[in-house]
Amino acid sequence: MNNNYERMKTLVNENIGEIPQNITLEWIKEKYNDNNSWFNLWFFTYSDLRGHTFDNNITSDMKRHINFSTKTLIDNEFFKISDSMYKVDKAIEQLHAKGIEGQNMEVAVIDYGFETLHNEIKEELVSYTNLSDNRPHYHGTVVASLLCGKNIGVAPKAKLHFYGISQGVPTEEKQINDVIESLEDIYEKNKNGANIRVVNLSSSMHRKNESFFELSNKLKEQGCYVIDSIDFHKYYTPINIDPNTNEYYYGIWQNKEVNKIKSLIGIPTGSMIPLHETQDDYQYCGDASVSWSIPVLSGLFTLALQIKNDLTFDEFNEIIINNKKTYEDGKTIIDIERTFSLIEEMNNNKTI
Question: In this structure, is the dihedral angle defined by the CA atoms of residues 140, 70, 117 and 43, taken in order, positive or negative?
């Protein structure tokens, strides 16, 4: 394992602190409520839990929120990885089975850069432009993998152009300039024969610069659409799928404003993400963030463009909004099967 992995493992475990031999629901809640960001993000991802036990009062509803990884060492079956954890949604699997996987499509991700290239994106990565001097970060690899990763991606056959940018405050101005430079490069690439149709930006800081809107409109003229957190927040929210029951559920962070969340359309987001600083390992992440769901939406739009090349992002959103599913408990979810059936009809010049 590389030195960066060992450094990350040590850093996480030091900040999480000592784990009791008998892990109880009360200890987990106390740790979570302490707002220890290290624990809330990583939980037991880098932990050696051999010799530890889990109390019986940890319910399945709580268990599905607890992060761990393929590197978590444990001598019982409290954590068990199944193939279903790598799947995003059955309707997406059905699209893949029909050969709709993003073939002949090009996408771009503008996000935090990485040094360790995970096998999720190794095959489809055609260009990597690093504009940042920051240390590597897990975020960019996760976002790219959820968009077009070979195992967990929505559009696994799409070709990826990645732009590594600076990390937020206190380098906010540098990050904004990095985004603008990336968009300018994408525009030039398309002028010179590339066919980048979707740009994923899991943030919105760049909107503080008027050049963003000018470039976004120029890219639209090329048939290329920039999707960022503002676009996502207009209509959508992440929603998780329990890998054991297939039940939709909100993350702990969403329950604080559940009535507002229920008015938005849930975008199902898979449970597995690449484990930071590894090439082959994965982290189970039971509470999807907005950053994880934006590339799912970007991936779905990529598949939609594969079917109907001249579809606009506004048209795509309108189809989703008009055909969403609402469940008895008030959750509203995208109807992927219906949405893509209508897009196929549009492409065949049928009336919706």
Answer: positive
Q: What is the dihedral of CA 208, 233, 225, 129, to 10 degrees?
A: 60
| C-alpha span between 201 and 227 (Å, rounded) | 6
CA distances for 326 relative to 315, 321, 323, 329, angstroms: 21, 11, 10, 8
Tell me how many degrees the CA angle 147-246-268 measures, rounded to the nearest 5.
30
Alpha-carbon gap, residue 160 to 37, rounded angstroms: 30
Give the model confidence (pLDDT) of 300-312 as tens digits. 999 999 999 999 9
Of 285, 44, 40, 253, which is closest to residue 141 (Cα–Cα)? 285
Q: Taking 80 as the threshold, does the pLDDT of residue 1 lie above it?
A: no
DSSP β-ladder status, 68-69 and 282-284: antiparallel
**What span, in angstroms and rounded, lies between the C-alpha atoms of 136 and 145?**
16
Distance of alpha carbon 225 from alpha carbon 30, whole angstroms? 43
| Closest by Cα among 196, 183, 199, 181 to 132 | 181
Side-chain-facing half-sphere of 160: CA atoms under 13 Å = 33
What pLDDT, on the 0 to 100 scale, is given for residue 306? 98
Residue type, 181: E
What does DSSP assign to residue 292?
H
pLDDT 10s digits, 275-308: 999 999 999 999 999 999 999 999 999 999 999 9
The two tokens of residue 285 are: 């992440």
Give per-residue pLDDT as tens, 160-192. 999 999 987 667 889 999 999 999 999 999 999
Q: Which sign does the torsion angle of CA 125, 129, 134, 140 carry?
A: negative
Residue 282 structure tokens: 């994965």
Can you tell me the distance from the alpha carbon of 180 to that of 206, in angstroms, rounded to the nearest whole number? Answer: 8
DSSP 76: S
